[in-house]
Records
---
Amino acid sequence: MELTADLAIGVFDSGVGGLTVLDELLARLPAEDFLYFGDTAWFPYGEKGDDQLRARAEEISRWLLGQGVKLIVIACNTATAAAAEHLQRVLEVPVIGVMTPEAHAAVLTTRNRRVGLLATEATVRSGSYARMVRAHDAGVELVSVPCPLLAPAIQSGDPFDERIMEMVREYTAPLREAGVDTVILGCTHYPMVERLLRRSLPGVTLITSGEELAREVHDSLRRRDLLRATGTEGDYRFACSGDPAAFRELGSRFLQMPLGVVEQVLGGAPERAVG
């Protein structure tokens, strides 16, 4: 497959959370075309096994390749932890995940060398953030808190009520007790409740993936001479594995822009994970 600058950038996530990444990519790379896939039939990823996630991530990535993309962004922390290295080995296009830029930014930001992590159970279980943080600075303490209910609550599209506020208070309590001064939002859904998180973590710097990852995508395309010429406005398309009408309604609310026609592909619920 010959990679050319006129091809699109593929982005995928378990649902609408990756739209927080896409938003930064659209701002940073306005001339590029994007194809976003939300795997809503398989949501949430946090309760799936690693083997299952790797197989699903490859299936999605090969569909994106069939649509014509020059780079794939894994806009999901759980999928990045489980599948990024595998995809980088087996695919013929660059693959960039959301975790490395966040870990690097957190180590550079912390002043007291105590960093918190809010993430799905699968991401915490993988230990990926701990390894990345130690690789940048072995003296930084990472306090990891699994948040199994937060992404599903955000994905549901229900109003952010007292139930979600109490959930945020519960998940952030160990980080306040640990005295962290920097917290990685280790799921791309979490920036959607950033204001609630800031109320529960006053004075703490929150690290999100979008801005840092958009910079990495730009630099990767530039190094490979795959950037589109500036001065034009790119296009964007959306697809999902679940209900396209529900995805369009929720996605347009979170992205604050019309999504247009949403194609339904790769449908079907997963079998129960065994590991």
---
Amino acid sequence: MNKWMHDELAVVTMTVNGHVYRRAIEPRLLLSDFLRDELGLTGTHVGCEQGLCGACTVLIDGAAARSCLNLAVSLNGKDITTIEGIRKRPQFPAIAQSLSRHHGVQCGFCTPGIVASMISEEEATQEEMDDLLAGHLCRCTGYVGIREAWKDLIQKKAGE
């Protein structure tokens, strides 16, 4: 038997979008595959599988992280929020409206990951926003609309 192949499964318990899941999984299963294949949460997109495109970004304990770079077993006890969970948050309608108003969405493949980054840094400075967006590949919008939508959200929040 190959030394990297294991017959043993690891048991992982994590909270995903407010629901506690306990599963026996292969130790090498990526979080992105766990979410999509084990839990059926297909809003988390998988693009490059190297952490470069940002499409698989989710929230891990509130911080934006690439699900394709994290082994599911390493997240035992963690709180994971996918785009499906983000859509239930009170701030999501404002994000969706702002992205729409500023033409920040076209094909939508990158959008769930970008929205996760937006949620994780709701009060980002221009520099922080640029840094976060640099970790997301969008082939459709050219980022102008996304930046404008994010700036609009930050300005409206500051005015509250």
